[in-house]
Amino acid sequence: MKSLAVYLKEYKKESILAPLFKLLEVVFDLLVPVVVAQIIDVGVAQDNRSYVVQMFFVLILMAGVGLACSFTAQFFAAKASCGFAAKLRQAMFDHIQSLSFTELDTMGTDTLITRLTDDVNQVQNGLNLGLRLLLRSPFVVLGSMVMAFTINVKCAWIFVIAIPVLFVVVFSIMLVSIPLFKKVQNGLDQVTGLTRENLTGVRVIRAFCREEQSVEEFEDSSRELTRLNLFVGRISALLNPVTYVLINIATIILIDRAGIQVNMGNMQQGEVVALYNYMLQIIVELIKLASLIITLNKSMACADRVAGILAVKSSMTYVNDEMRQKEKKQNHTPAVKFDHVTFTYAGAGAPSLKDISFQAMPGETIGIIGGTGSGKSTLVSLIPRFYDPQDGQVYMDGENVTEYTRKSIGEKVGIVQQRSVLFQGSIRDNLKWGDENATDEDIWKAIEIAQAKEVVEGKPGKLDFQLEQNGRNLSGGQKQRLTIARALVKKPEILILDDSASALDFATDAALRKAIHGLEGKMTTFLVSQRVAGIKQADKILVLGNGELAGQGTHEELMKNCEVYQEIYYSQFPEEKLREKINYDEKGEA
Ligand SMILES: Nc1ncnc2c1ncn2[C@@H]1O[C@H](COP(=O)(O)OP(=O)(O)OP(=O)(O)O)[C@@H](O)[C@H]1O
Which single residue of 3, 25, 402, 464 has CA 20 to 30 Å from 307? Predict the structure, then answer.
């Protein structure tokens, strides 16, 4: 939690001025009962009207100055807390961006969203209140006690006993509720997660008539959060009645003792009123302090969660520009090489890739095929270094991928993933993610290769057509074509299409492959596909089965010597199997 203090550094002045002005306000608050006592003991007792009026204006003046101090304190506290929260949120966002996929997979998106939003808001709230009230309340409590001593020592002892008793009660209740606040935030994570899942999957939920189950699931989770909140609320609600009972007992004793002192002539009536006022100020401040501590507890729990994210170190380090040696590209150096690569996802029991070795020469097209879950996506995700393998090495242009800067990998590799992700904005804005300096001509060229010309031309405004969030105003196939175009705008040396033509019809898929093949230069292309037709023409095909490389070679080679490939092929072209059988039988008869 202390680690978050750095984000307040820039607001040092505000963080000092806010409590300082609050303390000034307290001084005026503490003087009010003294002035009231004077009004009673001098003005009223001696029937001195002009004195009463004079003191009345003094009270108004004190209230005015107190109010100005309070406003100023509020201003500085708000400035510091809002600025702090903005910096913290930005730092978290930047940090999350720097984490590797391994950490992101482990933490999960939902908790990251709650921590980035609700948790940061709670910390901001806690800081704002803390800056204003954390010093004010104890200062009023202690100040009231000191003022009581200046009035009457015998009565002041009641304050000395009452205050610690009240403190113990308040803090005991707080200690019980602190751990519960963390549970409440975790419950909130769960509700956020379910909300997101249900809202993004609403079409599937309706298609499968799962509304009732979804509502029930949400209700269960929400009920649990409510139960926790109620429990914490009840404990916190105990504070007021308990503190009021204690303070009222103290007030009764105070009035009893003070009455005796007045009768003995040691005290005046106005001073009794002043002591009573101080007792009231104490209870008001203690209740404020109690709710402040509740807020601070909540925000400390949230601050811990925020600090937890900031403390996560990326398991992947990148070399920087200075450390990076210039590429020494030589002829006949493979564009991509896997050397006995084994990879297991964090938390997964079994490896998703086992001892994979192959190489792809510059300009080659590499097809990757295999059953579902055989490791195709995992394999290609190691090329742009989304993950690091536990064993073996991945090389690009003869250099280990760990020797590249993050930027240089980004420039070299263009990847189009299975799920098309587009962002709110124009088509042009989205495609310029590939290269922000790309001209409209470059963009149209990429669109043409990606077979998206008709799509874009059919939209009002063409490149200026506005996409909604996640590109939801486009069809699946249209989105896929645009994501392919976005990768092509970058003109990458290595292009990876991870089953990204799955929503395209056969003719478009074929035209896309032909257009990519016809590109100038030596772009190495990886085509991941479930369809043999999609990779048949590739220079080399990698066949994956259960994370292992079952075979590699051209289509013809694999048809001769790779059983897994033959199985896939004949399952997709059963008539070929039949023809094969007929040929074989005919040969046999001859
Ligand atoms: N983020 C992840 N965390 C843990 N395990 C994962 C993760 N992603 C994939 N896996 C596991 O790794 C294995 C390979 O998955 P991968 O996505 O690479 O398969 P694939 O061949 O691309 O499948 P498909 O054709 O269905 O997309 C699977 O068993 C899968 O459950």
Answer: 402
The response to whether residue 377 sits with its C-beta less than 6 Å from ligand 1 reads yes
Give bridge partners of residue 497 from the DSSP assignment: 416, 527
Q: Mean pLDDT score of the chain, rounded to an integer?
A: 86
Q: What is the 3-state secondary structure (H, E, C) of 135-161?
A: CHHHHHHHHHHHHHHHHCHHHHHHHHH
- How many angstroms separate the CA atoms of 446 and 488, rounded? 5
Secondary structure class of 88 (helix, strand, coil): helix
The half-sphere exposure of 355 on its side-chain side, counting CA atoms within 13 A, is 2
CA distances from 360 to 101, 337, 357, 432, 492 (A): 25, 6, 11, 28, 15
Q: Quote the pTM value.
A: 0.70
354 lines ligand 1 (CB under 6 A): no
* Cβ-count burial 429-455 (b if 16+ within 10 Å, e if not): bbbbbbbeebeeebbbbbbebbbbeeb
Nearest CA to ligand 1 atom 18: 375
DSSP E strands: which ranges in 423-505?
425-426, 466-467, 494-498
Is the beta carbon of 500 within 6 A of some atom in ligand 1? Answer: no
pLDDT tens-digit map of 357-372: 999 998 889 999 998 8
458: CB partners within 8 A, 6+ apart:
none
Say yes or no: CB of residue 529 within 6 Å of ligand 1.
Answer: no
Q: Does residue 502's CB lie within 6 angstroms of at least one atom of ligand 1?
A: no
pLDDT at 406 over 60: yes
Ligand 1 centre to CA of 323 (Å) is 34
What are the angstrom distances between the C-alpha of 571 and each of 376, 501, 530, 534? Answer: 19, 20, 11, 15
Q: What residues are paired with 368 via a beta bridge?
A: 528, 542
Q: How far is CA 480 from the centre of its chain?
A: 27
Closest Cα to atom 20 of ligand 1: 373
105 lines ligand 1 (CB under 6 A): yes
Which domains are present in the chain?
Answer: 2-311 (1.20.1560.10), 336-589 (3.40.50.300)
CA dihedral 513, 517, 521, 526 (to 10 degrees): 60
Kindly state the tokens that stand for 567: 């199985």
Alpha carbon distance 73, 17 (integer Å) = 7
Model pLDDT, residue 60:
93
Q: Output the CA–CA distances (angstroms, integers) from residue 478 to 104, 425, 516, in the order listed.
A: 29, 16, 18
Of the candidates 442, 420, 424, the one whose C-alpha atom is nearest the C-alpha of residue 432 is 442
